[in-house]
Design brief:
The complex is a heterodimer. About 2% of the residues of chain A have low confidence. The radius of gyration of chain A is 33 Å and the shape is elongated. Helices cover 54% and strands 20% of the residues of chain A. The two termini of chain A are 32 Å apart. Chain A contains 13 helices and 16 strands. By secondary structure, chain B is an alpha/beta fold. Chain B has a single domain, classed as Rossmann fold, CATH 3.40.50. A 6-stranded mixed sheet of chain B has the order 6-7-8-3-9-10, with helices on both faces. In chain B, helix 4 packs across helix 5, helix 5 crosses helix 9 and helix 6 packs parallel to helix 7. The radius of gyration of chain B is 18 Å and the shape is globular. Classes of the chains: A alpha+beta, B alpha/beta. Chains A and B meet through helix 1, helix 10, helix 11 and helix 13 of A and helix 3 and helix 4 of B. Bound molecules: adenosine-5'-triphosphate and magnesium ion. The site of magnesium ion has 3 residues of chain B, from helix 2.
Chain lengths: 413, 282
């Protein structure tokens, strides 16, 4: 007969009980908003970190001296017997399934231009650095073979160094900056990679490897045995599938060269991009679980709010149901009315919650480096839960009351 | 009497005298509206058995105005609830307007309550924060009456109870007597076969009580509606022609009243209102 009438009736009842309707909706909105905002932030952080690492270059393997403890609170341990150019040449010559290899040598240095200075790591690189690290110049060019062959005093600056040394709008190209008091000509400015949990990636500068080892750091770049020291050896695996095998083969090759007994751990670390992601993934996983827990608590609090309001009004509503039955309402009509009320409150509250949640996520993205990732699943979860709570606590008392004798419902206290 | 009549002037508009100090006795030849035989209602609380009703026979004809009296706990409300199909007897047969009630399922009972019965409670039981006219419209919603007709009939019912100027007032903005009149309007708006009222004047002062009696007499006289109510007050009971006395769940007396009080002898319901009240769909 009167589905439309019953819906109208439900809305009228809500309008007649605005505080109750408002508080119920508020509970649902808060729950939904909290879940969406927190889960989106968690997912955003995770994505951001993954992106930071994948921007390093595809299937990249890095070898660094020292033993890196994996997982949260990790770091380099053990005697830091340095890696050398000989190690690099051995890796480059003897590792199968590798497309390209590279090596660099990085040391802190003081940069000066005019009366301005900047202290960052300067890295001596090979000509294939740009390809292997997937990092190009924004202005000018990067180090090339000619620079390496000529041991030229040229430098490609990271954005942070440019900001430190030059006035805004000043063109750094072809200016002479002093690195540890040695004059270098600026040939390029690197693309900005922004900051990550690894620190400010733009606080960097690149010069030819030969220049770094032989001119700038001379003594410092030699080991006790007179070998040239390197900081990181890079190898780019042919594809994702062979990466573990390549890593294993590099590891055994270096262990052999460095004569490490079988029962001792390596004094160097072979890292893959995936592994780096996993290492930090463990951190962000904790973060996501943490945010998820907060979100779950918010949902629970919202749910309890809804429950309270619904239960507090049970007496009043039970009497109302008794009266409605007395004047001729069928149980189904009563259930329809209450269902409509609950659906309306839950859906409206849910939609408002989505709005607030997305707004909060957007707000966060304005102040943080990462973009919150809103997943459809999150929204579905939040709205689904609120709907379930709203419907259950809206309908359960109604259902019970509608099965009462009208007289018992009217007498309900 | 005269003073009382003046006090309740506003209950209904004046059309002209219709009563000559006498109420109709109901049509004894017509089929009874209520035929109940051997009605028993037994509550069990632990080992104790309470016989709220213990074999009650009642027959009430169309157009009767009847009072039910008896001491507290004698089973009056229990009987009214059963007669109003709000509750089912433990034993006994009950025919309402020719329909065997005990054979009906829940939905059919709801329909019977909607169409044939108008119930008036001692505590009014209006919807809070809801206007008088919306309250009166409620039964018509469940009867499937279209909004427009609903409005009109609810308005007519409120006019009939003298509240034509209080349509938009919420229950909490009305006096007790006015709230009870809204409840009566709600009961009569569906044009039921009977109006059942359980102590309708119990929460009211004597003036408001007299107004309610005036209304019941008017409805009974002008529309031929059957009205049954419970009261503790012999003076209120004296507004009827028949008083059923009940004690310990049994009927102990069924008396004709010879010296009725006529609450408002010269106040008939206006034809315009009667017309609308008659407009109930078949
Ligand atoms: N739900 C119930 N459970 C148990 N006993 C009940 C129940 N309802 C009524 N009774 C008992 O049935 C008897 C009759 O009750 P009822 O309410 O019909 O009395 P009454 O005549 O209306 O009294 P009053 O004048 O005080 O309203 C009482 O003894 C009461 O205790
Ligand atoms: Mg009673």
């Amino acid at each position: 007969m009167l589905l439309r009438e019953l819906i109208k009736l439900a809305l009228n009842t809500l309008a007649a009980n605005k505080p109750r309707a408002f508080l119920t909706m508020l509970g649902i909105s808060i729950g939904v908003a909290a879940v969406i905002a927190l889960m989106s932030i968690g997912a955003g952080v995770q994505d951001y970190i993954a992106q930071q690492f994948s921007s390093a270059g595809a299937n990249l393997i890095g070898v660094v001296p020292g033993r890196i403890q994996r997982g949260p609170g990790g770091g380099a341990f053990g005697a830091q017997a340095p890696l050398t150019m000989a190690d690099y040449r051995a890796v480059a010559a003897n590792t199968p399934n590798v497309i390209d290899t590279s090596v660099d040598f990085a040391r802190p240095a003081v940069f000066a231009y005019g009366n301005k200075t900047s202290e960052v790591n300067v890295t001596g690189v090979m000509a294939n650095f740009s390809a292997i690290r997937n990092w190009n110049a924004r202005l000018g060019r990067v180090i090339d073979e000619t620079d390496i062959g000529g041991r030229s005093r040229v430098v490609a600056l990271g954005q942070t160094v440019v900001n430190d040394l030059f006035e805004p709008g000043e063109d750094p190209l072809d200016k002479i900056v002093r690195i540890n008091n040695v004059p270098f000509r600026v040939i390029g400015v690197m693309e900005s990679k922004g900051s990550s949990i690894l620190g400010d990636q733009d606080a960097a500068a690149f010069i030819p490897l030969s220049t770094a080892q032989e001119r700038l750091f001379g003594q410092q770049s030699q080991s006790l045995t007179g070998e040239r020291i390197v900081s990181t050896i890079y190898a780019q695996a042919a594809n994702k599938d062979v990466t573990p095998a390549v890593m294993a083969s590099i590891e055994s090759l270096l262990r052999e060269r460095r004569r490490i007994p079988a029962d001792e751990p390596s004094d160097f670390s072979v890292l893959s991009q995936d592994e780096l992601i996993n290492t930090f993934g463990a951190v962000t996983g904790v973060l996501t679980v943490f945010l998820g827990a907060i979100a779950a608590i918010s949902l629970l609090v919202g749910g309890i709010g809804i429950m309270n309001i619904m239960l507090v009004s049970v007496t009043e509503r039970t009497r109302e149901i008794g009266l409605r039955k007395a004047i001729g309402a069928r149980s189904s009509a009563i259930l329809t009315q209450f269902l409509t009320e609950a659906v309306f409150l839950s859906l409206t509250g849910g939609l408002i919650g989505i709005g607030i949640g997305l707004g909060a996520a957007f707000l966060v993205s304005q102040f943080a480096d990462f973009r919150p990732v809103v997943q459809a699943g999150t929204i579905a979860l939040a709205v689904g839960f609120s709907l379930a709570v709203g419907l259950f606590f809206g309908i359960y008392p109604a259902r019970r009351a509608s099965q009462l004798n009208p007289i018992d419902a009217l007498r309900f206290e | 009497m005269v003073a009382l009549n003046q006090e309740i002037d506003h209950v209904s508009n004046v059309i002209g005298p219709r009563l000559n100090g006498q109420l109709p006795a109901g049509d004894a030849n017509a089929a009874p509206v209520i035929e109940a035989h051997g009605i028993a209602k037994i509550y069990r609380i632990g080992d104790i058995e309470v016989r709220a009703l213990d074999g009650v026979d009642v027959t009430i004809h169309r157009g009767e105005l009847t009072a039910i009296m008896g001491p507290s706990g004698s089973g009056k409300s229990t009987l009214m609830n059963i007669l109003g199909c709000l509750d089912q007897p433990t034993r006994g047969a009950y025919k309402l307007d020719g329909v065997d009630v005990e054979k009906l399922n829940d939905d059919q009972l709801a329909a019977i309550r909607n169409k044939k019965i108008g119930f008036v409670f001692q505590s009014f039981n209006l919807l809070r924060r809801t206007s008088a006219i919306d309250n009166v419209e409620q039964p018509l919603i469940y009867a499937g009456v279209k909004p427009r007709e609903r409005r009109e009939r609810a308005k007519a019912a409120l006019e009939a109870v003298g509240l034509g100027n209080r349509l938009k007032h919420h229950a909490n903005e009305l006096s007790g007597g006015q709230q009870q009149r809204v409840a009566i309007a709600r009961a009569l708006v569906t044009k039921p076969a009977i109006i059942l009222a359980d102590e309708p004047t119990g929460n009211l002062d004597s003036k408001s009580g007299a107004e309610i009696m005036c209304l019941f007499q008017r409805l009974n006289e002008d529309t031929g509606m059957t009205v049954i109510f419970v009261t503790h007050d012999p003076r209120i009971a004296q507004h009827t022609r028949r008083v059923i006395r009940i004690a310990d769940g049994k009927i102990i007396g069924d008396d004709a009243i010879t010296d009725q009080i006529i609450a408002c002898p010269d106040k008939a319901l206006p034809e315009s209102i009667l017309e609308k009240l008659e407009h109930a769909p078949a």
